[in-house]
Write a structure and sequence with these properties.
alpha/beta, Immunoglobulin-like, TIM Barrel, 9-stranded mixed beta sheet, 8-stranded parallel barrel, 20 strands, glycosidase, GH, Glyco_hydro_30, glucosylceramidase activity
């Protein structure tokens, strides 16, 4: 009887291996990122419906990760939770096991963002003083919440990648000596380059590796608090004269990423990349989408295919609309940004309280975090950005490769192949508000029948 039992086990194992794993968010059915029954292949392998064909032979960019901006306010709310509650939510967010979502990328502010309690830099001085050698550089304010939370996150997932972005230099470096607007004074270019170097070095001393920096958050939006106006010609000048040489001098391997603003101005990164003296130091360009269209990323890629692209920020406006936000963000960012060569998709921001605080005077008053934290409670259900990122982050692990899948009207989709187990991941959204859509998926030579209700998102692993 031993041989038949082994044969039956073998058949069952093969059958299970051919099944598709399926995770669903369907707001109308109150299904919030929940695993569904496995889908078995058709017995006859017949194609008789709309079909999404996954083709691993056509490959595109490597994925660095999916995640959020860990603002100072987000870190404060997380850090103020009691030890048990904080440990639970950090495990839920960053642990990569089957019960959690495994966020793989975080963006940090270098100094304050507009979602901090106060405006600060790492080199704040009395009026009329300067510090060209960064003698008074101090991570200071970050030691309150950001650094402790990052250390806890890194203990859960030591491989998470971190990007730093400044909202403003120290105000003594600026033309208007104010946290809002102004430009970087050219005589302080070298000092500001050293400021970046010191940030990376001091974070490393804390065990925190900064994988990439952008030169300036939203350089064409000088009305935020903090903010800085930095035109393309001056960003190129700063990189080639000061930042690039400083990184080289101090053996800094952190990636330099330009622009970090809306997709309506692809000319900005293109202008900088045309400058060969600046281009030699640049890894790629970063985008937001409060203006323009997502295919602008491909416009930049087509001109400089050797340079990487990143999608680094998109907000969900309070109070949020799960169905509408889910469809737009998955269609436009998880699918759209990655189909246009982005290596990351990051939502803004990780956490806020019920009053959407903290924020600086003049900072964002309607930015809804992925989490709402009320005193010592993380509210459920989570907010739209949580589910948007979960559908990709949990399954499309860093170093996955985007692969080909055909465009289907009404069913925006994108496919990836993981590098660890070579399984394929397909994210699909039914962008119609109402109406169930049946379709098929062709993967590994097998055909599978499935469906999504209007306004729902499915992630399929085969």
């Amino acid at each position: 009887m031993l041989l038949p039992l082994i044969f039956i086990f073998f058949i069952n194992t093969v059958s299970n291996a051919q099944q598709i794993e399926f995770w669903l968010t369907d707001p109308d059915a109150n299904i919030l990122f929940q695993q569904q029954p496995f889908i078995s292949p058709n017995n006859d392998n017949q194609i008789n419906d709309i079909i999404i064909n996954i083709n691993e032979n056509e490959t595109y960019q490597t994925i660095d990760g999916f995640g959020y901006t860990l603002t100072g306010g987000s870190a404060m709310h997380l850090h103020n939770l009691d030890n048990t509650t904080r440990a639970q939510i950090l495990q839920e967010l960053f642990n990569t096991d089957k019960n959690n979502i495994g966020v793989s990328y975080l963006r940090l502010s270098i100094g304050a963002s507009d979602l901090d309690e106060v405006v600060f830099s790492y080199n704040d001085l009395p009026p009329n003083e300067i510090d060209l050698n960064m003698t008074h550089f101090d991570l200071g304010h970050d030691r309150l919440h950001i650094i402790p939370i990052l250390k806890e996150i890194l203990s859960i997932n030591p491989n998470i990648k971190l990007m730093g972005s400044p909202w403003s230099p120290p105000i003594w470096m600026k033309t208007n000596k104010n946290s809002i607007g102004g430009s970087l004074v050219s005589e302080y270019y070298d000092a500001y380059a050293l400021y970046f170097v010191r940030y990376i070095q001091e974070m490393k001393k804390e065990g925190i590796i900064i994988d990439a920096i952008t030169i300036q958050n939203e350089p064409l939006h000088p009305g935020n608090n903090p903010s800085l106006l930095m035109l393309d010609m001056f960003q190129a000048l700063f990189i080639k004269q000061s930042l690039g040489p400083a990184f080289r001098k101090y053996s800094i391997n952190t990636k330099i990423i330009i622009y970090d603003h809306n997709a309506d101005r692809p000319d900005y990164p293109i202008t900088i990349l045309k400058d060969s003296d600046a281009r030699q130091y640049i890894d790629g360009s970063a985008f937001h989408l409060y203006g323009g269209t997502i295919n602008a990323l491909s416009f930049v890629h087509d001109r400089f295919p050797d340079k990487n692209l990143y999608f680094t920020e998109q907000w969900v406006g309070a109070p949020g609309n799960l169905k509408g936000d889910l469809v737009w963000h998955v269609k436009t960012l998880i699918v759209g940004a990655t189909r246009n060569w982005a290596r990351t998709v990051l939502e803004w921001n990780l956490a806020a309280d019920q009053n959407l605080k903290p924020h600086t005077p003049g900072g964002c008053t309607l930015c809804l975090g992925a989490l709402t934290i009320d005193n010592n409670e993380v509210l459920s259900p989570r907010n739209p950005a949580y589910y948007i990122i979960a559908h990709a982050a949990k399954f499309v692990r860093p170093n996955s490769i985007r692969i080909e899948s055909n465009v289907v009207s009404g069913l925006p989709n994108v496919a990836f192949q993981r590098q660890d187990d070579k399984r394929k991941v397909l994210v699909v959204v039914n962008e119609n508000n109402s109406g169930k859509q049946t379709f098929q998926i062709q993967c590994n030579g097998k055909v599978y029948n499935t469906s999504l209700n209007g306004g729902s998102v499915g992630t399929y692993i085969c």
